[in-house]
Design goal:
single chain; alpha/beta; Rossmann fold; 4-stranded parallel β-sheet; 3-stranded mixed β-sheet; 9 strands
Length: about 240
């Protein structure tokens, strides 16, 4: 998706016994500054934080997250973007007011935090539900056992269900960083790989936290995707 001039480096936070709990993210929030400092020292042009729950787990609120990202960006002279806040920026950029959230694998405490964050930012969340709410699994534990990777047909079914619950919204969202196995070879792909097809299927913009973060990083770099098959949000970028 990115032009060949773009290189990507990853850095995992070292949190012993990490189990993706919201309180662990709250307690480790300060480590994001370590990440920005290290990456800035390594000469990167922009830093991006993956994981949509970190913004609401922090307890800082929408304005607090915006200010924190701005503070770190100024302090280390390197732009820093968080996936959860990038979604807010993307929705505002696309003039979205009403939306429905396909919360996919996120348990209720996770996605309810996302809904509250979006509402605090001024959006009308008409409907939100995860794979358990939608009836594809009997327990949340069964969802968790998939470790965020599912057969691709679930993506289409879950978005059809979301659209049935809220047919008149401006856009459909998908939480987190889920993966979906391609039937032909089992290759697991992110929602961003399916955005254009989903938009054609539903007739509305489809924005995921992964898509929003990529859009925000590209926007900072003054770049656009190398091809035009990435859906409305990414295709809105101009070099």
């Amino acid at each position: 998706m990115a032009p060949e001039t773009v290189g990507v480096h990853g850095w995992m936070l070292h949190v012993p016994d990490y189990r993706h709990l919201l309180e662990q993210r709250r307690d480790a929030f300060g480590m994001l500054e370590d990440f920005v400092e290290c990456m800035a020292n390594n000469g990167v042009d922009v830093c991006g934080q993956v994981g949509s729950n970190w913004v609401h787990a922090s307890g800082l609120g929408v304005e607090g997250i915006r200010a924190h990202c701005a503070m770190l960006s100024d302090k280390y002279e390197t732009p820093f973007h968080m996936a959860g806040y990038a979604m807010v920026e993307a929705l505002r950029d696309q003039n979205v007011e009403t939306l429905a959230l396909n919360a996919c694998y996120h348990r209720d405490t996770w996605y309810q935090g996302t809904v509250a964050f979006l509402r605090e930012a001024g959006f009308d969340v008409v409907w939100a539900g995860n794979f358990l709410d939608q009836g594809w699994f009997e327990t949340q534990e069964q969802v968790d056992d998939c470790v965020w990777c599912f057969d691709e047909d679930l993506l289409w079914k879950s978005f059809d269900h979301t659209a049935e619950q809220a047919p008149n919204v401006d856009a459909y969202l998908i939480n987190g960083m889920s993966n979906y196995r391609r039937p032909a070879d089992g290759l697991a792909r992110r929602p961003v790989h399916h955005t254009a097809a989903l938009e054609e299927r539903l007739g509305k913009p489809v924005i995921g936290h992964d898509t929003a973060l990529y859009w925000r990083i590209f926007k900072t770099l003054g770049l656009a995707p190398a091809d035009g098959a990435q859906g409305r949000l990414l295709n809105s970028l101009k070099v």
